[in-house]
């Protein structure tokens, strides 16, 4: 049976909570924050390879008792073709960010991509590779466009 609880997404480039946001977390018994760590975009200026963009900085930490779930947004055009080693690079970056920012006991990561019928096969293969590299729970958003 899955553990139930309230969760929110945090989609800014700096993890920082004001008093109103802290009160919200407490009032609504938030147990998980799906926090966008970075986007993966195509480097259109040079190699046309995927690269990280808009990486979050951590000015605050989550209150005790709230689980951090790193969430990575991947632009759909990154999934138009296979990119050797991309899954491993994404997982390595998440682990490095967790270690650098003393974020412990991360049990789950989430991948967010607005994939299409054309990018679906590459995207699903990428997800299998992420799951293998991560070795823990992987969740995804499902929005087929």
Provide a quick synopsis of the model.
This protein is an alpha/beta fold and 145 residues long. It has three helices and eight strands, in the order E-E-H-E-E-E-E-H-E-H-E.
Relevant terms:
single chain; 145 residues; alpha/beta; 6-stranded mixed beta sheet; 3 helices; 8 strands; 27% helix; globular
- Largest sheet, if any? 6 strands, mixed
What's the average pLDDT? 93
Number of strands: 8
Helix residue percentage: 25-40%
As a percent range, the share of strand residues is: 25-35%
Rough outline: globular
Q: What would your notes on this structure say?
A:
This protein has 145 residues and is an alpha/beta fold. Helix content is 27%, strand content 30%. It has three helices and eight strands, in the order E-E-H-E-E-E-E-H-E-H-E. It has helices at residues 19-27, 86-100, 120-134; strands at residues 6-10, 14-15, 30-42, 50-53, 57-58, 67-74, 108-113, 137-140. The strands form two sheets. Strands 1, 3, 4, 6, 7 and 8 form a six-stranded mixed β-sheet that branches. Strands 2-5 form a two-stranded parallel sheet. Strand 3 (30-42) and strand 4 form a beta hairpin. The mean pLDDT is 93.
């Amino acid at each position: 049976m899955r553990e139930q609880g309230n969760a929110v997404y945090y989609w800014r480039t700096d993890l920082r909570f004001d008093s109103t946001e802290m009160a919200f977390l407490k009032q609504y018994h938030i147990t998980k924050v799906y926090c966008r760590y970075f986007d993966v975009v195509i480097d259109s200026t040079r190699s046309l390879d995927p690269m990280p963009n808009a990486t979050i900085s951590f000015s605050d930490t989550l209150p005790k008792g709230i689980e951090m779930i790193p969430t990575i947004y991947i632009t759909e055009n990154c999934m138009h073709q296979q990119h050797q080693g991309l899954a491993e690079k994404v997982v390595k970056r998440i682990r490095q960010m967790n270690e650098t920012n003393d974020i412990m006991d991360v049990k789950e990561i989430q991948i967010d991509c607005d994939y299409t019928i054309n990018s679906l096969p590459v995207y699903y293969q990428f997800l299998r590779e992420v799951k293998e590299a991560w070795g823990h729970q992987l969740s995804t958003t499902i929005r087929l466009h």
